[in-house]
Prior knowledge:
Helix content is about 45%, strand content about 0%. It contains 5 helices and no strands.
Amino acid sequence: MPQILRMPSEDELPRGPRRTFVGELFTYFRAAGRPSPASIAAAASQGPQPDRVMVSRETVRRLLKGETTSTWPKVRAVHEVLCRMADRDPTWRRFSDSSDYDEDNDTRTLREYIRDLWNDAVDGAEVDDVPLS
């Protein structure tokens, strides 16, 4: 019987940009009902052309464990599958339903937000260290 994936502990994945990225990805993973990496990979490979991206179940597992940041096309494919499974649209504004956030200052979509976190994880930059432009 396959083991259910859990968010890595801080010992397994210390605080920092990679943990923040994985935590956001886990938000969608949980909302989708914790589907198996194999079902996520299968759904990604059945996506519409030309956006179809082949993602292995091992890549999905490693993304959710914080063992890789992979490539943006693969991360986007996994994110979009999880959004579909969770009945969320990746073009929705990320902070539109947060009562304690000034949404006028952050209009990023779910896709844009996860991409920013992915970039930070790849670069190793802390969210608070990124200069505001």
